[in-house]
Amino acid sequence: MTFKPRYVSIAVITLACITPVLVLVLLSLSQSWVYPKVIPGRLSVSQWREAFRQNTGIANSLYITLLLAAAVAVISTTSGFICSKWIAYHKHKKRLLLLAYLPFVLSPVILAVCLKFYFIKLNLAGTFVGVLLAQLVIAFPYSTIFFTGFWNRQMLQYEQLVKTLGGSQGYAFKMVIVPAAKPLLLICFFQCFLIAWFEYGLTSVIGYGKVPTLTIKVYQFVTEANIYYAALSCCLLVLPPILLLWINKRIIFRQVK
Amino acid sequence: MFLHLQHIQKGYGTQQVLNNVTVQLPAQQTLSILGRSGCGKSTLLKIIAGIEMADSGSIYLNTKDITHLKPAERNIVYLFQEALLFPNMNVFENISFGLRIRKKSEQEIKKQVNEMVESLSLGDHISKMPHQLSGGQKQRVAFGRALIIQPPLILLDEPFSNLDVEARTNMQGLYKQVAKQYRLTALFVTHDLKEALIMGDQMSYMQQGQLQLYQNKQDFMNDEKTGVKNELVFWNGL
Questions:
Q1: Hey, of A89, A165, A185, which one would you mutate to test binding to chain B, going by the most B CBs within 10 A of its CB?
Q2: Gap between the Cα atoms of B163 and B159, Å rounded
Q3: Which chain B residues touch A176 with a CB distance below 8 Å?
Q4: Terminus of chain B with fewer CB atoms < 10 Å: N or C?
């Protein structure tokens, strides 16, 4: 029996990608999985049922995280798209872009500590809106940088052409610019969603733990040594982004074709 | 005069791009503007279209002062070097774009677009997307999109410069035919001497922001700086 190296490497890579997720799913379904057992003793969906029925806070965390990530993605994508246009055609484009890179110079936790004072002063610390704004500090500049390359000479000429054909700026945006940017808008939306979905540092420091997103919940379960709920929260954390990536891939590739 | 430019001045910082440009063009005539790259030809067209504003001077179209009107209010179409077809629309939708802005009925749009498509020999391509068209076909569609709104003035900024020799010759022929059919008044910018002579009813030469108009083609050819004499010397010497 011979194995082609190509297929072996594909199998190894696939296994390496799937195994961690599979272990998480198994752990979230197991009642007891202790050393030296290779597989869990008993598998049941009761933990999943409990998680959404009882007062574990997991369901609440899921809704908060979904709402937060969706809000961050919508706000940062739209505002970044508009702001990047303004920057792209500005005479001080390079300086303004440098400002957009500033939040990425520091790690999110250090950035959060730096900003915490202002959030406390504005009574935003420990609130949903506070965490939303804190996450926008990262997602908005990311989106702005992401779209800067889109606003080239050709896009400017499209706008000018629509105007000479009798259309307004808004009409050019609606009929030509946004459709042309659609694949990029979708990619940016998904990426900003993922940034917010997995964000921990800013959420933890600005939210004081009062805004229990899934990442905060996972950490909480891990420190409580509750590995089964931690695994369940991790599954919830991992599955929606996988779904999004799958949809993203389908939409983008369909548009490119 | 149908188009009257009076003392147009334009500068960027310390650089003067247009210097006291004055033009008078009768209706249904095409004025060729020959000049090297960076001499201010495109800036002049953009000012007439309203995409850029002049520092001083006035623009009159059919005796109406349009100097301070927005581009959408001027009804002057600017054709760029690239065809700039909207990538999310097929040929029909691209050509009908201006009619939809003017909120024409669906029936009217269909009728006008079909007529335009036939006159530009694009009948077989009406449902195609821009990426399925050749360079020449794209320029035809761009023409159709401009002509269908019946603009009083068309500004052509080296529209054939990206085409190969054969497609360019075809498009020049098509333009002459279309200009006659639709009684176009146009400004045609080019840096190609032969093209300027073929396309223009009237001739001009732009150099360092100054536009010189010629009484006739003979005057244009007799002027050393247009380069016609050098060309003749070259061809006669072969």
A1: A165
A2: 9
A3: 86, 88
A4: C
